Amino acid sequence: MIKYVGNAASGGLSVGKIKVINRRITGFKRVVLATHREKALYEAAVILAKDELHRLMMGSDGEHRDILNFQLVMLDDFGLNRMIQEHIAADNGAARSVEMAMEEYCQRLKNIGDEYLMRRTGDIRDVLGRLVDILDGRSRERFKLTEPAVIVADEILPSDLASIDRRYALGFITAGGSYQSHANIIARTMGIPSVCGVDSEILNPLNNGRKVCLDGYSGEVFVNPNDGTLALFNHRILQEKRAKLSLMALKEKKIVLSDGDHVEIYANCNDPQDISMAVNNGAAGIGLVRSEILFMKQSLPTFDSQLEFYRSCIQAADGKPVTIRTFDVGADKPAGNVSVDKEPNPALGVRGVRLQYIHRELFETQIKALYIAADMERPINVMIPMISLEKDVKDYLDMAYGVRDRLMADGVIKTDGITWGIMIETPAAALISDVLAKYVSFFSIGTNDLTQYTLAADRVNVGAAPYYDPMHPAVLKLMEITVENARKAGIKVSVCGESAADVVCAKAYIDIGIRCLSMAQNAMIPIKRHLTEEREKTAVR
Ligand code: PEP
Ligand code: MG
Fold first, then answer.
1. Is residue 234 part of a domain?
2. How many structural domains are present in the chain?
3. Nearest CA to ligand 1 atom 9
4. Which in 23, 200, 263, 332 has the greatest CB count within 10 A?
5. For the whole prediction, is pTM greater than 0.90?
6. Binning pLDDT at 50, 70 and 90, where does residue 425 land?
7. Are 344 and 308 in the same domain?
8. 200, 228, 256: which is the final residue of a domain?
9. 516 CA to middle of ligand 2, Å?
10. What was the pLDDT predicted at 75?
11. Final residue of a domain: which of 77, 104, 136?
């Protein structure tokens, strides 16, 4: 038995056979030709790689399609191309030049220290690796999994994920990669155990087919486990399955309060895949779809891509209520193409609804896509973020109703399928919620921002963490005011901040009259367990 310890990247336990993806053998028997011929080879390889990516795009959708599109854009990147050409001019040969430029370029991105750019280095390595494979005459056929296996690789690349049948992926073990790398983000959403940063010795092809035990909680990996380790893992896996089953029994359980009121548990989601999972895990509805995810990519979403996304979200919710938030760009969610550059205090700057005066066209396109999606599928709720002024709500809704009326007049939509709401996430919005209630049909309290703005504690600044308390009496007071004003106006109110998933906060929110809590979908079942156990204990007493 050999034990390795890496970094835990996605929780869970696995026992299975190893399948090694080994890509590290490069430079074998390369011959460097005259510079002009290497240059021509490089240019031909780029054309071929583009062709391959276009073909791959035809068979993919969603995020993978976006990644392939990004890789196509990278093949035309001016800076990267210049770097490669310079190395070719220095007689390094096309394949080696691509490898050299890849290292330099990725290092530059890493030096910027931006997490998003760092994550993109995997996509860049993947597409440049394709070029090197073409130049070295290696196959670009991605490996296929035909039976369950634990995948071991230097790094799991986006193109691997596209070709792996995820039903067979028992776990990922990588020598490189990070917690934030694309494969690990996917692993966490799919519940696939993963460990990264393991000694590269594990990539030895002799490990193919060997048994491995993988602990995605502790980062431990046991190759050729002895009988004791194997038995322990099998026992823990069985226990986990049982625990999951008993938790799943809670999936449909209703939270009923002593006065007979129900508390509904909704999910916060990013995309249709997330929504399907949430519905399968018992979400009574989707309380927040963060549409800004669409605006934080390399290029802005088109009307068509938005329409497809919103329709897929509605379909994935399988008849359950869906609330989509209009894009909340700015502050902790910058989007290069939309947010205002270099604000001295971005959290207090032009974010969310405030951008309507700068990017009216973008807002109108989103509204149009939402109205048409609702008309084609079924009615939805849409809410507006970052409200502090009555004027912002009024202006936004004037714009929205203008779009709706034009779509109706042109016969594009037959129904008005949107119920409008706003987020209450600034003290100002909470304090004037009586006035704001006249414009909308529901409030959703965003405690992440409400806490930040009430306590003047930046939500992304670790140093300010001691001041950031969603249970602070001032935050609860503002929530109480909001609930009371919603009650008086006869409109709905829910909470969709992270704190809704905290059992102490959730109970406090229920006590002030909240009857709908929306949270990350993996928090729903644990919170249901806590809340139902608590009620059952009180009932027995
Ligand atoms: C919030 O502010 O509580 C919220 C749900 O929105 P976000 O975290 O996306 O700003
Ligand atoms: Mg917010």
1. no
2. 3
3. 290
4. 263
5. no
6. very high
7. yes
8. 228
9. 17
10. 94
11. 136
What's the CA-to-centroid distance between 449 and ligand 1, angstroms? 6
Q: Let me know if residue 40 belongs to a domain.
A: yes
Say if residue 221 is in the same domain as residue 304.
no
pLDDT at 541 over 50: no
Q: Is 449 a pocket residue for ligand 1 (Cβ < 6 Å)?
A: yes
Examine the domain organization and report whether 407 and 424 are in the same domain.
yes
Q: Which ligand is nearest to the CA of 386?
A: 2
Looking up residue 103, the CATH number of its domain turns out to be 1.10.274.10
Average pLDDT value for the chain: 89
Residues 307 and 190 in one domain: no
Do 258 and 344 reside in the same domain of the chain?
yes
The mean pLDDT of 254-266, rounded to a whole number, is 93
The ligand placed nearest to the CA atom of residue 290 is 1
**Structural contact between residues 135 and 161, judged by C-beta atoms closer than 8 angstroms:** no
Say if ligand 1 is within 6 A of residue 496 CB: yes
pLDDT tens for 458-508 read 887 778 889 999 999 999 999 999 999 999 999 999 999 889 989 999 999
Going by alpha carbons, the residue nearest to atom 6 of ligand 1 is 446
Measured from the alpha carbon of residue 288, the closest ligand is 1
b/e for 222-247, b at 16 or more Cβ within 10 A? Answer: bbebeeebbeebeeeeeeeeeeeeee
Q: 487 to each of 40, 287, 429, 480, 481, how far by Cα in Å?
A: 71, 19, 16, 10, 10
- Separation of alpha carbons 500 and 372, rounded Å: 31
Annotation marks residue 182 as catalytic:
yes
Is ligand 1 within 6 A of the CB of residue 452? no
The number of beta carbons lying within 10 Å of the beta carbon of residue 126 is: 22
Cα–Cα distance measured from residue 403 to residue 118, given in angstroms and rounded to the nearest whole number:
39
Same domain, 19 and 129: no
Beta-ladder partners of 140? none
| Per-residue 3-state assignment (H helix, E strand, C coil) for 44-60 | HHHHHHHHHHHHHHHCC
Residue ID of nearest Cα to ligand 1 atom 7 = 448
Q: Is 447 in the pocket of ligand 1 (CB under 6 A)?
A: yes
pLDDT digit string, tens, across residues 141-167: 666 788 999 999 988 876 676 667 778
Instruction: Please report whether residue 206 resides in a domain.
Output: yes
Question: Is the Cβ atom of 497 under 6 angstroms away from ligand 1?
Answer: yes
Check residues 246 and 181 and name the one with the higher pLDDT.
Answer: 246
Helix pair angle (62-75, 35-58), 10° resolution: 160
Q: Are residues 335 and 422 in the same domain?
A: yes
pLDDT tens digits for range 365-380? 999 999 999 999 999 9
Q: What separation in Å is there between the alpha carbon of 448 and the centre of ligand 2?
A: 6
15 and 129 share a domain? no
What domain range is 105 assigned to?
35-136
Are 1 and 223 contacting, i.e. CB atoms less than 8 angstroms apart?
Answer: yes
Q: Quick check: is 125 in a domain?
A: yes
